[in-house]
Amino acid sequence: MANNQQLFHFKLGKQPQQQEEEKGKKVIKIGRDLGDGSSVVYFPSFIPQKQSWDFFHFLNHHIPWSTPTIHVFGKPFLQPRDSCYVASKGLKELTYSGHKPHAYHWDDFPPLKQILDQVHQALPGTRFNSLLLNRYKTGNHYVGWHADNETLQMLFCVEAWVAAGDEGKYTT
Q1: d(Cα 124, Cα 156) in Å, to the nearest integer?
Q2: Under CATH, what is the fold of the domain 47-172?
Q3: What is the pLDDT of residue 91?
Q4: Residue ranges for the binding site for 2-oxoglutarate?
Q5: Residue 60 CA neighbour count, 13 Å, CB half
Q6: What are the residues whose beta carbons fall under 8 Å from the beta carbon of 15, sequence distance 6 or more?
Q7: What order of strands is seen across the sheet that includes strand 103-104?
Q8: Domain residues of the chain, as ranges?
Q9: pLDDT tens digits for 42-56?
Q10: Residues annotated within a binding site for substrate
């Protein structure tokens, strides 16, 4: 992929399900090759429901959420969602849409480290060094079409999206 990776959200149609045995339990993965070295893999129920709700409540009540002013086409706007940035020590600052969020560390929020460990187990060979948490509290909160072009981006980039809470549709 080129340096300017685009992130697309789309609804997968019926896909063949690949089942794998992992420590005595079945793991369901649904995947699609997007070409040019890109792919999407979906792990339904990747975190058990009870644990998922525990994480959801922790995130909702203990993360220092902010709603910053961002700049789109040179004009200031209140970001239409809450966010919080977590990064490994020594990582360059993140800047997007003219905003430089404060970088919290993984150790500040132990449940995030647990989620990260579960993602690393599900995706062997990956190591994530940062996380941009987004909270969509109302039907007016959203993320629009965009191209990620932050300075942190690498030539080869792996993104993981972990959703907790409502099992609604994720569309653009």
Answers
A1: 16
A2: Jelly Rolls (2.60.120)
A3: 86
A4: 134, 136, 146
A5: 12
A6: 30, 31, 32
A7: 103-104, 82-87, 130-135
A8: 47-172
A9: 777 778 888 888 988
A10: 73-75
Work out the average pLDDT over 92-101.
Answer: 85
Residue 58 burial (10 A CB sphere; 0-12, 13-18, 19+): middle
Can you say which residues are annotated as belonging to the binding site?
Answer: 73-75, 134, 136, 146
Residues in the chain: 172
Pair 59, 164: CB distance under 8 Å: yes
Closest CA to 63 of 118, 126, 117, 137: 137
- 158 token code pair: 């792996």
CB 99 within 8 A of CB 109: no
> Is the separation of the CB atoms in 160 and 110 below 8 Å?
no
Kindly report the average pLDDT of the chain as a whole number: 72
What does pTM read for this prediction?
0.70
| Secondary-structure breakdown of the chain: helix, strand, coil percentages, each rounded to the nearest 5 | 15, 30, 55
**pLDDT value at position 28?**
60
> Structure tokens of 137?
């509290």
